[in-house]
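Re: Re: token formats

Sure, here are both.
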Amino acid sequence: MKRIVFCDFDGTITVKETFVAVLKHFAPQLSAQLIPQMYARELTLREGVRRILESIPSSRYPEVLEFTRCETIRPGFTELLDFLEAQKVPLVVISGGLRGMVEVVLGELIPRIHALHAVDIDTSGEYFQVNSEFEGGTELVAKVQVMEKYLVDEKIAIGDSLTDLNMALETPIVFARDRLAQYLEEHQKPYIPWQDFLEVRDYLAKLWNLVSNDE
């Protein structure tokens, strides 16, 4: 059976909501206005995030990357990668945030990621210009569109917030925490609660019958 794991980045791989912190830090007034509207689903992520990003001067891009450099990765992520590699199951990172931020935080783990899909930024003008290969619907990175690229028998999603909702609704096996868990409860969509990636690894090991029932 061919399997694949799709994993969000901000607030999922990272302990904190890295991208939201960047928006609030580099565009505080617009973020204070638009982020609550996005969480309340009164404004789409596609429109709100674009407006905030394109208000940030291009000259500040190095500061954005430096701001995220020391973000903490959630415990167990490396162990999950070890487990998935042993099972020959690829992990794909799908982030609604900036590609550069993801690459800075993951660092030496990047070669172990099967693929990374995120928002690209053009800094050749005065302000950020957003480019996204998978922009569509309500999202700058339409995660369901990304998932459709991968033809496998079993898809697993891991996430934590609003940017993961559409992905979670379209995936049979979902690990959800924080805001995503709340949204899924509203939609009456079953999910597996989790706090760290060791829990994800151990659940998948049991699901795939890789450990005995009495362990």
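Second one below.
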Amino acid sequence: MERYRISFTSGSLYYCESVTLAELYQSLKDWEAVSDKSLLDNLLQTRTESTAKRVCREVIARLKTLTEGELTHLVEANHQDQAHILWIAVCRLYRFIADFAVEVLHERFVAMKLDLSFEDFDAFYNRKSEWHDELNNASASTRDKLRQVLFRMLREAGLLAKDKTISSILLGPRLVELLCQNNPDEFFFFPIYESDIRGY
């Protein structure tokens, strides 16, 4: 079974950083050049070079999962669609997050169980750890960080309210079109009803 990548133990959705680097990519069309210029000019406005390198590497890895059309839309879209595109990128890069989005977030939403707790994460983690040694062997602190960062990203993507209730969302028409073109199964990354997905 494919190993989970669980290297998202720090950071967030990186909204501002992602849009900044996506805009730069539109002019350079080369990720290595984007990285070089970002670090040279400290475009991500980090305090240390090591942080700049880590954040730049992480953001570019996520942005590379997007198609050219999705990258263009990320630059041009409103804040809500931008956040949803970045959530898609995170799910594509980290299958652990994608599985959580589909099996927990989406499933609870369609079952009208709109509360999402740390216990739901722990139950999911324990279930997956039976098949994934990388989860089983992770320390308790790593597990806590994964949970903390995932819930932060859910809030930043507009999928979870501050009181940990799942938020109903509306995908913009251009984003819907892009998902239909690429992989309609990715609608399940979001808290939306099956009837809405069929409508898309």
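The first helix runs from residue 15 to 28. The radius of gyration is 17 Å.
- S.
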